[in-house]
């Protein structure tokens, strides 16, 4: 009982820290919005409704493709879940990630749901981890590919500023973020209950190392499935970025499309860090800072794009809310989810 109490206290403290980061970031965003309200109003008035709706449609299509990726990873472990069930659970996880202020993330929800209906609980959890790893890996590859393989011609007479030069005006903000990350890591390592939880987690992982190794080995024996998952991920990640590029172009943001395929993946990786609830605020500030590094792109333009993205995230999570409200993610009969192959 004492261990459970300490574990709960640790979760509460970490949850409070993540909420504090989200509130701090949101406060900065609100301050910028107040100062740039006229510019933001002008930018949004130039955004056609059909372009915004197209961005929503591309986001929804991308998430259907991501659901297919997870479905393929589950099938690789002989966990036979109907595709429609994978879609419903994915959108439910999306709802928890983007809207619900909860310590239960969308990934944990997917693990709980699949593990509840299969004896292959370790493999089910591994499918979610591999799904997330494939997504993050593809984001990094996409950002690097577009940055290095698609050069952009600068206007005549305009020198290419180095990265440090472009980031120097934001030295204080960057230092604060890096300092907070260092303090957060130090807190986790110094705080005794969090150390115990880390040790306990590693102990559990290694206690099942043979079974985990077998499950990982099963993925390695199916290179075609993994390759297909990576290809699907590239396509799924490109779709919403194209939508954001269309919005930026409609709002008169003079930034080459290359940087959309660099900055959005980087911001998504930043948002995936467990330092804020659902990446709220952190994701937006990261995107604003990245676009401000480009000549001719102002703070208000980067913020307009970042807020468009957040609006689309929320709207795209509404199906997950409906699924949660109606209980549509629960199996309607014994045939909807096959426990094992």
Structure description:
This protein is mostly helical and 341 residues long. It has one domain (2-151, 183-326). 77% of the residues lie in helices and 0% in strands. It contains 15 helices and no strands. α2 packs across α14. The longest helix has 34 residues, at 2-35. It starts with a helix and ends in a 15-residue tail after the last helix. The relative contact order is 0.17. Mean pLDDT is 78; it is low at 154-164 and 334-341.
Secondary-structure topology with pairs:
Elements: H1 2-35, H2 37-45, H3 49-76, H4 83-98, H5 106-116, H6 121-149, H7 163-167, H8 171-190, H9 192-207, H10 209-220, H11 223-250, H12 257-272, H13 282-292, H14 299-316, H15 318-326
Helix pairs in contact: 2-14, 3-4, 3-6, 3-11, 3-14, 4-5, 4-15, 5-6, 6-11, 6-12, 11-12, 12-13, 13-14
